[in-house]
Design brief:
Blueprint lengths: L2 H21 L4 E5 L2 E5 L5 E6 L6 E7 L4 E6 L5 E7 L8 E5 L8 E5 L4 E5 L3 E6 L10 E5 L5 E7 L4 E6 L6 E6 L6 E4 L6 E7 L4 E6 L5 E8 L6 E7 L3 E6 L3 E6 L4 E6 L10 E5 L11 E3 L9 H22 L21 E3 L2 E3 L4 E2 L5 E2 L9 E4 L5 E4 L4 E2 L5 E2 L10 E5 L2 E5 L3 E2 L5 E2 L2 H8 L6 E2 L2 E2 L5 H12 L6 H30 L5 E7 L18 E7 L22 H14 L9
Antiparallel strand pairs: 1-2, 1-24, 2-3, 4-5, 5-6, 6-7, 8-9, 9-10, 10-11, 12-13, 13-14, 14-15, 16-17, 17-18, 18-19, 20-21, 21-22, 22-23, 25-26, 27-28, 29-30, 31-32, 33-34, 35-36, 37-38, 39-40
């Protein structure tokens, strides 16, 4: 590098330092219509930046390292987000994000460590990376609101969390999540009407929010970062608060009834410290102020160390309270310095903890032993690796194996003695109960006497229930209960008996059915002598024919039966016709019946 280049570099550095000092020479920043007013803590106007193309700026965020102000204009139909560089005298608007069909941007916040810009619309929570050396990344969705109406957001840069309020009147709430949207929780839902603004105090690790109650009332409340220890600081009237900011001593908020900025101490005394009007824009003929930022709670001014000290104090106070409730005592520890901030031997490195090997987390509170050993105790070795000391009944790298698991066979009971498994056999023998008894011998012994002693109880007979239990325990057979089998067999026998009876009755009725029989006495010679009596044994030219259940067959082999005709025929004609047919069908005259 030449001498001339070095001189130019030094001059540029001096100019940058000068501009930086000018850009940081304010305590509060407020948007009023198209202006950005820079104020001191007492309300004195230190400077003003006018955005020529803006009309009604509704949201604002600040990057302390590049001195860039991110803005959103409610009436700008072309761009949703744009930025201005406060180091430049000539204000130049730089478009960041084009407006889409989504609703206007309600609130914005910038996380300096991750260089991420967050914003809310009515139905979504969005984020976008803002690298220093290149163009911004594409926006991404953090959370999509189904029925909630998101209002304000606030960042906890020390713990990498984001907080927001929802002003849906059916379910107003204060919620929290990690910066990536994970671990989402609802902190507060009770006694809320329409929370309009929220702020995170990095000095005392607390939340502050304003609730615009129904009618003319409003509340300014505070709680721990987890929503506990909720306290009302101000319960006033005739205000419509919009946005909230805070520094190390005071709380500031904008409201639209008086077109003013109000201030109160973070720890007000009752009936003494009431909200005071810091500056009124109504008297100046301007519209109401909207967004407000406090430098002490932004960027490089964030004091994460103090925030962690406050969290440790609260944790120890809570632990002490619980111990006192259980009649226990604990030594008071001083956490005003670095002692106690980092756990497990960690040390402070700037605003973060430098952890020993085997530990992690913002306070080195997470150990590699967490949930590592399944049975037994865990220790961290010199290399930062977890080592398990197992109990007597388990072994393995993580004490995951039960040494009794599957060791004893045939329903033997396992116990551990001097680190070794021992089996207590019941109906078997051997080291692992692997030798089973002969079932025939067991049954013979079991039923050898009617007065058999079983578990010191006299039994009058060899019962199937006890025998079945013995078989199950010895051979691990499936449960076979005679008390269940016998009723089942009885039911089957009864059903079969009923079926046999029904079939017998049916067959008997069929056998009683009348049989059609007709007997005729005929003369083989064809004589005209009437045949009115049964043939005698001396008469050879007469025979008796019995006709039964058949037809058109040889009368000597199978006589025939003619069913009734549909038409009415006299009995004499029927008899004559039947006789004629029988004689015509008979064989030669020499054959006899």
């Amino acid at each position: 590098m030449s001498y001339r280049d070095r001189i130019l570099l030094i001059l540029n550095l001096l100019v940058a330092v000068n501009l930086t000092a000018e850009a940081r020479s304010w305590d509060l920043a407020v948007t009023v219509d198209k202006d950005i007013n820079f104020l001191a803590r007492n309300g004195t106007l230190l400077g003003k930046t006018v955005i020529a193309n803006a009309t009604k700026m509704s949201a604002m965020a600040y990057d302390d390292y590049t001195h860039t102000m991110f803005l959103s204009d409610m009436n700008n139909r072309e761009y949703a987000i744009f930025s201005v560089d406060l180091r430049l005298k000539n204000v130049t608007v730089k478009p960041i994000l084009k407006r889409d069909k989504d609703s206007p941007i309600v609130s914005m916040a910038f996380d300096t460590p991750s260089r991420t810009l967050f914003w809310t619309t009515k139905w979504s929570l969005m984020k976008m990376k803002m690298p220093r050396d290149r163009s911004p990344n594409k926006p991404s969705l953090v959370h999509k609101f189904d029925v909630e109406s998101a209002r304000d957001i606030a960042l906890d840069s020390c713990n990498k969390r984001i907080y927001w309020t929802t002003s849906n009147r059916s379910s107003p709430s204060i919620m929290r999540a990690n910066l990536d949207g994970s671990d989402m929780k609802t902190l507060i839902t009770e006694n809320l009407y329409e929370p309009t603004s929220i702020a995170v105090d990095h000095t005392n690790s607390r939340l502050y929010w304003i609730d615009d109650e129904e009618g003319i009332h409003y509340k300014l409340e505070t709680s721990n970062s987890d929503g506990s220890s909720r306290t009302v600081l101000v319960h006033g009237t005739h205000q419509t608060p919009l946005h909230l900011a805070l520094d190390k001593q005071n709380l500031y908020w904008t409201e639209m009834v008086h077109n003013a900025i109000w201030r109160i101490d973070k720890e007000p005394l009752a009936e003494v410290d009431l909200p005071k009007k810091l500056i009124s824009y109504y008297e100046k003929g301007q519209s109401e102020p909207t967004s407000i930022l406090a430098m002490d709670n932004l960027g490089s001014e964030i004091d994460c160390k103090s925030m962690k000290i406050e969290e440790i104090k609260r944790e120890k106070i809570l632990a002490s309270t619980l111990k006192s409730a259980n009649n226990l005592t604990s030594d008071d520890e001083d956490v005003s310095d670095d002692k106690g901030i980092c756990a497990n031997g960690g040390t402070i490195n700037g605003t973060d903890c430098k952890c020993k090997p085997g530990y992690s987390g913002s306070r080195c509170e997470i150990s590699v032993c967490h949930n590592y050993c399944l049975q037994g105790e865990c220790f961290v070795n010199d290399k930062g690796l977890p080592v398990c000391k197992c109990s007597a009944s388990h072994n393995g790298l993580r004490c995951e194996h039960d040494i009794c698991d599957g060791y004893c066979l045939n329903a033997g009971r396992c116990s551990v003695y001097n680190g070794k498994p021992i089996c207590d056999c019941k109906y078997s023998s051997g080291v692992r109960c692997e030798v089973t008894f002969n079932m025939a011998e067991i049954c013979a012994l079991f039923c050898v006497n009617k007065q058999l002693q079983i578990n010191s109880v006299d039994t009058s007979s060899c019962r199937c229930t006890e025998l079945n239990q013995t078989i199950e325990e010895v051979l691990n057979y499936d449960n076979f209960n005679c008390t269940f089998l016998m009723p089942l067999l009885a039911v089957i026998v009864v059903m079969m008996t009923i079926v046999v009876i029904i079939l017998s009755v049916y067959v008997n009725r069929l056998r009683r059915r009348p049989r059609v029989k007709k007997r005729f006495v005929v003369n083989k010679g064809g004589g005209i002598t009437p045949l009115t009596s049964r043939p005698s044994q001396l008469t050879t030219d007469q025979c008796e024919i019995t006709i039964e259940n058949c037809c058109n067959m040889n009368i000597c082999e199978t006589p025939c039966f003619e069913p009734k005709l549909r038409t009415s025929i006299t009995r004499s004609n029927v008899i004559k016709e039947e006789k004629s047919n029988l004689l015509d069908n008979m064989e030669g005259g020499n054959n006899s019946c």
